[in-house]
Amino acid sequence: METRGVRVAAVVVTALALVLAGCTMPVGDDREPDGTELIESAIDERATVDGLQGVRTTTVNASNGTVSTTVRVWERPPMEHRSEVLEASGPEAPGDLIVSNGSETWTYDAEDDTAMRYEGPVEGPESGATDADELLEGYDVAYQGTETIGQWETHVVELNATDERPIERSIGLQVGDTEYVLPLSYGENATGERTITRERWWIDRETSFPVKQRIELDGPGSEPTTITVEYDELKLDADPADDRFAFEPPANATVAEPANLTTVESPADAAASASVSVPDPRVPAEYERRDVTVEDDGSAVALFYEHEDDPQKTIYVETATEELDVLEYGEVVAEAVGPIDATHIEFPTMSTLVWTCGGQYYDVSAPLGVDALLAIATSIDCR
Fold first, then answer.
1. Its domain of life (predicted)?
2. Which of 53, 163, 189, 307 is the most exposed place for a label (fewest CB within 10 A)?
3. Strand, helix or coil for residue 145
């Protein structure tokens, strides 16, 4: 199991979890339902679901192939969560677990028979926009009729992004045992950011729960990517047993310690305790440094920068003495990029450059185009 504290690498599939929570809304007369009202009701009322259990399949289709993971989930908002991998074509394996009771979170790698315990809850997955007005302001909404999805008769609503008012929105990505909130932007792609071009929602006619959702992404350096989440065997307002949110490692399992991170004020402070040369990159003027973290053994340093107008828009820079594992997960778009001979890797919502310099490993990750990433990377003075 990967023990590094921060990994923006593995944006595949157990990975992406969109909580498409349910609600109720009245079924009208014979008039065609209004797509905007369906979406508004689903978003506004989703927090009313007291709990759910079921099977959720997340599929990422990209130019380098398809990765899919099916998990059985139990959720009791706001903090209790359990997911068990049933099938996977990516780095996850059947039997992998994430279990949180609100005060502690366990992850279990079935293939390696390794468990890891963290203090605190795992943050609940997000569907992105939490405000209906914010979401709909970036879309043209069209009702597409009805469709049978598994056991459900659904209303189908399509949302097509407009470029009239580009706005940003985030989507929760769970990477191994860590959840990251990465930005997705609507509208024009002038800055090289990956953009949402279209969404399609399949909303159960009886409960108004979105039992399926598909997001289409476009962006630089890669063909369009689709992310689809679909539920099966779903029970809403379920009350899972308390033991679903408890975990005891198997008797012979290895219980690994998560990497301990210390947050410091600046790269200079990090250099005082790190065994690596600490980068101090030049980033675009609209980004400000938010955090600098150092692994307690000094073997890795990470810097986080956030956009001054949108804190969810981040740039991530890491250096470490050990090889970074991002190549295992994303789509390698190009090698030997720029004067640093970097490898360019694409993920559904971000791009990464990975390279070596002065005996260290580096990566820069952000929802930016490769030219912008390369400018950041080449500003790092390494020897």
1. Archaea
2. 163
3. strand
Rounded to a whole number of angstroms, the CA Rg of the chain reads 21
The two three-digit tokens of residue 300, written as one number: 């890795």
Asked if residue 26 has pLDDT above 80, the reply is: no
Bond prior to 210 in cis (omega within 30° of 0): no
Residue-wise pLDDT tens digits, 295-333: 888 889 999 999 888 776 789 999 998 876 665 556 788
End-to-end CA distance of the chain: 31
**Residues forming a β-bridge with 294:** 262, 301
The rounded distance, in Å, linking the Cα atoms of 181 and 369 is: 18
Contact 38, 203 (CB under 8 A): yes
Torsion (CA) 350, 355, 358, 360 in degrees, nearest 10: 60
DSSP reduced 3-state for 296:
coil
Q: What are 155's strand-pairing partners?
A: 146, 203
Measure the CA–CA gap between 124 and 166, rounded to whole angstroms: 27
Bridge partners, 83 (sequence order): 73, 98
The token pair at 358 is: 């002065």
Spell out the domain ranges in the chain. 13-236, 259-378
Q: Which CATH class is domain 259-378?
A: alpha beta
Distance CA 102, CA 31 (A): 45
**13-236 adopts what CATH topology?**
outer membrane lipoprotein receptor (LolB), chain A (2.50.20)
151: CB partners within 8 A, 6+ apart = 232
Q: What is the identity of the amino acid at 165?
A: R
25: confidence class by pLDDT, cuts 50, 70, 90:
very low
Phi-psi sector, 233: left (phi>0), alpha (psi -120 to 50), beta: left
Binned at pLDDT 50, 70 and 90, residue 181 comes out as: very low
How far lies 370's CA from each of 116, 182, 328, 362, in Å? 35, 17, 19, 15
